[in-house]
Specification:
The chain is α/β, with parallel strands linked by helices and about 170 residues long. It has two domains: about 25 residues; about 130 residues, Glutaredoxin (3-Layer(aba) Sandwich). The protein has eight helices and seven strands; from the N terminus they run ααββαβααβαβαββα. β1 and β2 form a beta hairpin. The radius of gyration is 19 Å and the shape is globular. The termini are far apart. About 15% of the residues have low confidence.
Length: about 170
């Protein structure tokens, strides 16, 4: 029995030492934050079937990227919170991008129609963008300022989300 325990512990230590850094960051070990770094651009298929770039979509505006899925109860409640704030966000020129993680367009389209949701939806079918953004669980929000810098990430939309954008004024040409 002691030999089994020693062997098991040795195997666990070996696996931890050999575990790739990219995979460990997805589990929260040694996670590198994107805060105060340039938000990675991405180009994905949208709900209407076209391909759009995040940077072209936000066009120099402050933006919120929301990683979510329809099957996630907390994602649905946060999506409804965003929907309730839609007019306020539009008044403040904050663009909202919903990045759906791994679902079929037909499933998402039916959900959006049923709930009268009309945000721009990008489809991360293989999770590559979620990995690029180091998403560890959904829902996840990224707050990107007008210069394209990630100001914060949260698993909910805080009441004081505007503070993330307050330090930099939009300077559009």
């Amino acid at each position: 029995m002691k030999t089994f325990i020693k062997l098991s512990l040795s195997l666990i230590i070996l696996l931890v030492m050999l575990y790739p850094a990219s995979a460990s960051s997805q589990l929260g070990w040694g996670q590198v934050s994107l805060t105060n770094k340039t938000a990675p651009d991405f180009e994905l298929t949208t709900l209407d079937g076209s391909t759009k770039s995040f940077n072209n979509f936000r066009d120099g505006d402050n933006s919120i990227i929301f990683f979510w899925s329809t099957w996630c109860p907390h994602c649905r409640s946060q999506l409804m919170a965003l929907l309730n704030m839609k007019e306020e966000l539009e008044r403040k020129n904050i663009k909202v991008v919903l990045v759906n993680e791994g679902e079929k367009i037909t499933v998402v389209s039916a959900f959006l129609e049923k709930n009268n949701i009309d945000f721009e939806v990008f489809f991360d079918t293989d999770g590559a963008i979620g990995s690029k953004y180091q998403v560890v669980g959904i829902p996840t929000f990224y707050f990107v300022d007008s210069a394209g810098i990630v100001k914060a990430s949260e698993h909910y939309i805080p009441e004081n989300y505007g503070a993330f954008f307050a330090s930099r004024k939009k300077n559009k040409k």
